[in-house]
Each structure stands twice: as structure tokens, then as C-alpha cells.
Design goal:
The chain is an alpha/beta fold and 324 residues long. It has 9 helices and 11 strands. The strands form 2 sheets. Strands 1-2-3-5-4-8-9-10-11 form a 9-stranded mixed beta sheet, sandwiched between helices. Helix 4 (171-182) links the parallel strand 8 and strand 9 (189-193). It is globular. The termini are far apart.
């Protein structure tokens, strides 16, 4: 949960050089007493040094992580965001993401992603929309800076944007699209299942009650008002009046190098619809996000792909700032 926080601005660390900050080597414990969320998970409680937010973070490592053949490799990461009001457990307990992906990863059907699921409900009874709300919460910085740095400092993961993606369902889908469009220097792709553009679609949204935030955290507005089209790819799903129409609007607004894939769904706004979509969404991610690389992602950003990237990524450092 969050305490009173410094204000870092709408999108990030307020000009701080995160790469120069002390390493965040976090201790994790194996989750062995929670059969509802499946096997292989590790858990920690993170205090965000930049955002001031805090919460639990679950991590799952792919089978290749401990394979001696991969001991010098850094792995791609997908940050998983729950809906609202949701839990960091939802991707594991409701969508069975790791149990679905483990055999696919072993067969080489998808990249060996490190999966990371942080707390997204940082304020009781309020949806942050994964936004930095001045004087209230720095949810964007929590996800795109604090969690990201902790993962790259603790595990053998890629630091460049070409090795990172974000995925969410419902309110988490809104967040995923927002973060990927806003931070193409941190995320190369996003998956959004039954999301929305206008944050007011969630009645408890904080951003929806501020005219400026409501506008500037809308993925469609962000695309149409970007100084230049972001280098990112989006995979958006939904059905009419539940994500599909908003996804089509984003697709129509996108200009290269932004790429948007829209996939219709049916069956309502529920986990039983999103769960069977996980395999195809991760197959898509495997063609957009880079695979495991050696110690220098900046020189090997195309290594280990299942198929050629659509992104043409520019490597970045842990701050999300472009390298010279």
C-alpha cells in the first residue's frame, strides 16, 4: 500500500538517473503453501524507492533460467497487470498463466519469458489507472521504474526495451496500453484483454476525476497527440462495447512504427474468456519481443527471436533513457 509520496510528474522519475541509483537486490521466498495460484512462484514485498509505493510482487522464472546452457543469458520479461479491484495473484490463480506457458516454453513455441506480477491496487477503493497522480500516488513510476529496476537488478533479465512487454486484462489492459504507448523506451509491446481507452470507464478511477489526467492517460488521446508515433506494438482484444470498439479506434489512430493487432473475443467480461487467449497472446509477444541475449543487450537486441521483430527496437538503459 502507499504512504504520502513525492511528486515525480506524470510519467516517470522526475529526471533522476535511475541507472546510477543503488542496486535493488530483492530477497524472494518460494510460494509453497498456496495451491490456488499454481507452482513455481516466488514472492517479495517491494518498497519503491522512486515512487514511494509498495506492495507484493510475484515472479515466475521459465524452465531455461536454470539450464546451464543459458547461464550467461538475460531473459525477456512480461509485466502482468490485474484488473480493478484486483490482486497480483489473479494472473496465476485465474488465468493459470505459468501452467499454460511452461509446456509451450519447453517446446519452443513461445519465448522463455520471466513473468512479473506486481500489486496494482495501491489505494483502497480507488483505481489509479497506473498513472502518477500528483500528491496522491505514483502508480506509473511504481510499475515502469521501481518494479522494472528491481527485476533487472535481482534476476538475469534484459534491460533494454526490446526485451520488455506489459500485459493486462480489464483495467489492467487499459494500463498496459497506456504504459507501452507512454514508455516505448521501456516496453516494446503490450497485450490488452477487454480494456478501454477513457479511464472514466472505471467509476473508481482517480484519473477520471481530473480533466487533464483523464485526457492525457487515455491511450487513444496519447497516440493522436504524440510528438512522434511510439515504437511499440499492441495486441488488443474485446467484443463490441467491451474493448473491441476502443481497440479499433486505437488501431485507426496508429501510425508507423506503432503497430496494433485487434482480436475479437466473445463471452463477456470474465476470466473464462481471457484464460484461453493467453497462449495466442504470448505467441504474438514472442514475435515482437526479443528473446534471451548475452551480457550486452545493446549489441544483441535481435538475438533469440522466435520470428523477426516488427519493432526495430532502440536499446535503452534501466532508466528508460536512450543510450548514445
Amino acid at each position: 500500500m502507499s504512504r504520502p509520496r513525492p511528486t515525480w510528474g506524470r510519467t516517470g522519475p522526475g529526471g533522476r538517473d535511475i541507472a546510477a541509483a543503488p542496486r535493488v537486490r530483492q530477497a524472494f521466498t518460494a510460494v509453497t503453501d498456496d495451491p490456488d495460484i499454481g507452482p513455481g512462484l516466488r514472492l517479495t514485498h517491494l518498497m519503491g524507492r522512486v515512487s514511494g509505493a509498495e506492495g507484493e510482487v510475484y515472479v515466475w522464472l521459465p524452465p531455461q533460467y536454470d539450464d546451464p546452457a543459458y547461464r550467461d543469458k538475460r531473459f525477456p520479461v512480461v509485466e502482468l497487470l490485474a484488473g480493478y479491484p484486483g490482486s497480483a495473484r489473479d494472473w496465476w490463480g485465474n488465468l493459470d498463466v505459468q501452467t499454460q506457458l511452461k509446456p509451450m516454453t519447453e517446446r519452443g513455441e513461445v519465448q522463455p519469458f520471466v513473468l512479473v506480477s506486481p500489486r496494482t491496487t495501491l489505494l483502497a477503493g480507488k483505481d489509479t489507472g497506473c498513472a502518477n497522480v500528483p500528491g496522491v500516488v505514483n502508480a506509473d513510476t511504481w510499475l515502469s521504474v521501481d518494479v522494472r529496476k528491481m527485476v533487472t537488478d535481482t534476476f538475469r533479465t534484459r534491460q533494454d526495451a526490446d526485451g520488455w512487454a506489459v500485459a493486462g486484462f480489464s483495467a489492467g489492459a487499459h494500463c498496459a496500453a497506456k504504459l507501452a504507448i507512454e514508455h516505448p523506451d521501456r516496453y516494446r509491446a503490450a497485450v490488452g484483454l477487454s480494456g478501454y481507452d477513457d479511464p472514466a470507464a472505471e467509476p473508481d478511477s482517480i484519473a477520471a476525476h481530473d480533466a487533464r489526467l483523464r485526457r492525457t492517460t487515455d491511450p487513444l488521446w496519447m497516440l493522436t497527440h504524440a510528438r512522434r508515433p511510439p515504437l511499440t506494438s499492441l495486441y488488443l482484444s474485446g467484443e463490441p462495447r467491451d474493448g473491441y470498439d476502443d481497440a479499433l479506434a486505437v488501431q485507426r489512430a496508429a501510425k508507423p512504427p506503432t503497430r496494433v493487432t485487434v482480436v475479437p473475443s466473445a463471452g463477456g467480461h470474465r476470466v473464462t474468456v481471457w484464460k484461453p487467449m493467453v497462449p495466442q497472446a504470448f505467441r504474438w509477444l514472442s514475435g515482437v519481443v526479443g528473446g534471451p541475449v548475452g551480457a550486452e543487450p545493446s549489441t544483441e537486441s535481435s538475438a533469440g527471436r522466435v520470428k523477426p521483430s516488427q519493432s526495430g527496437a532502440t536499446p535503452v538503459n534501466a532508466t528508460g533513457s536512450s543510450r548514445p
